[in-house]
Design brief:
Protein-Tyrosine Phosphatase, Chain A
Length: 392
């Protein structure tokens, strides 16, 4: 299959999880691809042989007729949006697109994994590494499994054969004014698809998975429903699903030192934090290092973050990871610290603005039999090595 043969596509921001996958798929489908990024990233390893420019500012050689620009560089460089190219890729192969507020990466990974084990040879574009599948993206001759994004409403442009919504929640406060607005977007998108799955209509799978938590059993039910719509036996898919060990940074075990286990998660919404804390409980104490993500989310959900984190035994909170937003006066991680203290007076909670401070705080309090959970969608995962070193 070479639907993009003859195209020459230059990717601005090619080292990101998204565009690196799009470039991989475009090359497999016959296009000549190249790109620019500021620094070397692990995702570039899957693009061996592709011409890549590394420089402080975006580079677009004149010889490339088609330019696709990462969301991070829109406004700096002219070209097609990431979302526009993704819509084209989805239209070129039988596709399953997974959307929803929580669990998208895990559920999309489950679907791709089951299809792979059932012999479908799926392609996939997922927002996190799936170690059992060799990465976050792959070209295949079967179904194309894609993780969609509602944060900027671009999910509305995707037209898959099977549309999946894991759940509905208000997570992107800079884009949506209400829960009802998010629900409307998803309802319209599902209605436009020939076949669809809604996770809130399903019960969790009844069998245990290799990854913990009821929320993952709910993700599993969504995955099995999608695989069944794709034409495979749900029973056989269930057998495969039991072997799925998860995506990177989704309750990922990262090591043990001094009898303390370290687990890392991308969770960045109050419901996700609560689900992950509950999932890792095994009778011992749970210590959490949390890095809030986005000023808008922190401002609107500080109280809910506090309530979720209060279910842990010890908590440290860093300052906000800004990502794509500019700082907002008065909005810092201290809002979450205060909310934890309000939710559970007397609980040991630390305001540790730097990730390094947070790593030292939880390491100093951890003892044999405890679990330390690093939570957040920013760069809090770099605390893992620091905590392990401090505990060794």
């Amino acid at each position: 299959m070479h639907p993009l043969e003859g195209r020459r596509i230059w990717f601005v921001g090619i080292g990101g999880a998204g565009l690196s996958g799009y470039a991989l798929l475009a090359r497999a489908w016959g296009a000549e691809v190249g790109g620019w990024d500021r620094v070397e990233t692990p995702y570039l390893r899957q693009l061996e042989g592709v011409p890549i420019e590394l420089a402080p500012e975006p580079v677009v050689p004149e010889a490339w007729g088609e330019v696709v620009v990462s969301t991070a560089y829109r406004g700096q460089v002219d070209g097609r949006s990431r979302a526009d190219l993704l819509a084209e890729l989805v239209s070129l192969q039988r596709s399953i697109v997974v959307a929803g507020a929580h669990g998208k990466t895990t559920t999309a990974g489950m679907i791709a994994f089951c299809l792979d084990r059932l012999g479908d040879d799926p392609g996939f574009l997922v927002g996190g590494e799936i170690p059992q599948l060799g990465g976050n993206a792959r070209a295949g001759r079967g179904w194309l499994v894609v993780e969609g994004d509602e944060s900027d409403r671009t999910i509305a442009a995707l037209r898959p054969e099977i549309a999946v919504v894991t759940n509905v929640d208000l997570d992107h406060h800079s884009e949506f004014a209400s829960h009802a607005e998010v629900e409307s977007l998803f309802a319209d998108w599902l209605a436009a698809a020939p076949r669809s799955v809604r996770g809130d209509e399903l019960e969790p799978v009844e069998f245990e998975l290799a990854i913990p938590g009821e929320h993952n059993r709910r993700n599993g039910a969504v995955a099995l429903a999608a695989v069944a719509l794709a034409g495979y036996s749900a029973e056989e898919a269930g057998v495969a699903l039991r072997e799925y060990r998860g995506a990177a940074r989704r309750l990922e075990p990262r090591g043990e030192a001094g009898g303390v286990e370290i687990i890392d998660s991308y969770a960045h919404h109050p419901q996700e934090l609560a689900a992950d804390i509950a999932a890792v409980r095994d009778g011992g104490r749970t210590l959490v290092l949390f890095q809030p993500h986005l000023y808008s989310r922190t401002r609107h959900l500080a109280h809910a973050f506090g309530a979720s984190l209060a279910s842990a035994d010890v908590v440290a909170v860093t300052d906000v990871y800004r990502a794509r937003e500019e700082p907002v006066e008065g909005v810092t991680g201290k809002l979450v610290v205060d909310a934890v203290a309000d939710a559970r007076p007397g609980m040991e909670v630390g305001w540790t603005p730097a990730v390094e401070d947070g790593a030292r705080f939880v390491a100093a309090r951890a003892r044999a039999g405890d679990r330390v959970l690093t939570l957040g969608a920013g760069d809090v995962d770099r605390a893992v090595a620091l905590i392990l070193e401090a505990l060794a």
